[in-house]
Amino acid sequence: SFKREELMQEVQMHMSERRFQHVLGVEEMAIALAAKYGASKEKASIAALTHDYAKERPDEEFEMIIQRDGYDQDLLNYGNAIWHGLVGASMVQRELGINDEEILEAVRLHTTGAAKMSLLDKIIYVADYIEPGRNFPGVKEARELALVDLDEAVAYETKHTLLHLIEQERKIYPKTIETYNYWVVRKA
Ligand code: DGI
Ligand code: FE
Ligand code: FE
Ligand code: FE
């Protein structure tokens, strides 16, 4: 549709060609998962197209917004990896005029996940991990799980992301641990 073309152009202008190709891969995967699990394909498309919209913004801009707009100031102890979704959703809203709270929440949660995730949140979280351009050990298993059981795919991604972060001795954002405790430890 025309709206999608316009949104795609706006997103493309804000990132490298390589990242834009990732975004298109996430969109393709998100639409497929929405079809399979009965979510809105249009919302999946818009959330996927905008999920990394803020990824190439300077740290100073995120720091200014975190200080100005009443975010938890503990966020200042993290970096772009945590900010581009959680805080980036406010740029998606303000600059792209997207006011659908389900879409904005999927953008906010796409990196860390959360204990409480909607179907759309799970679709974007998983699609980001398994889009066709991703190539890392374990991605095949993640893709297979996503076709069978979306919750299992969320658990798999969370566990393996955390293992990777710990291996690299990176700082873990508390919400990432909440996601682990809920989806990996406490899952049914
Ligand atoms: O933006 P993408 O690269 O497409 O993917 P993403 O937004 O899911 O993840 C961005 C990075 O954030 C990725 O390298 C994993 C990392 N990450 C996820 N949870 C945490 C984290 N990094 C830190 N330091 N702490 C976390 O809790
Ligand atoms: Fe991201
Ligand atoms: Fe992700
Ligand atoms: Fe992404």
Structural class: mainly alpha
Please estimate the helix content: 55-70%
* First and last CA, distance: 40 Å
The dominant shape is globular
CATH topology: Hypothetical protein af1432
* Overall mean pLDDT: 97
Order of helices and strands: HHHHHHHHHHH
Q: Tell me the Rg in angstroms.
A: 16 Å
Name the CATH homologous superfamily: Hypothetical protein af1432
Sheet with the most strands? none
CATH architecture verdict? Orthogonal Bundle
- Strand content of the residues, in percent? under 5%
Ranges where pLDDT stays below 50 over 5 or more residues in a row are none
Kindly list the characteristics that best describe this protein:
single chain, 188 residues, mainly alpha, Hypothetical protein af1432, 11 helices, binds 2'-deoxyguanosine-5'-diphosphate, binds fe (iii) ion
General description of the model:
By secondary structure, this protein is mainly alpha-helical. The protein has a single domain (2-135), classed as Hypothetical protein af1432 (Orthogonal Bundle), CATH 1.10.3210. It is built from eleven helices and no strands. It starts with a helix and ends with a helix. One fe (iii) ion binds at residues 51-52, 55, 84-85, 110-111.
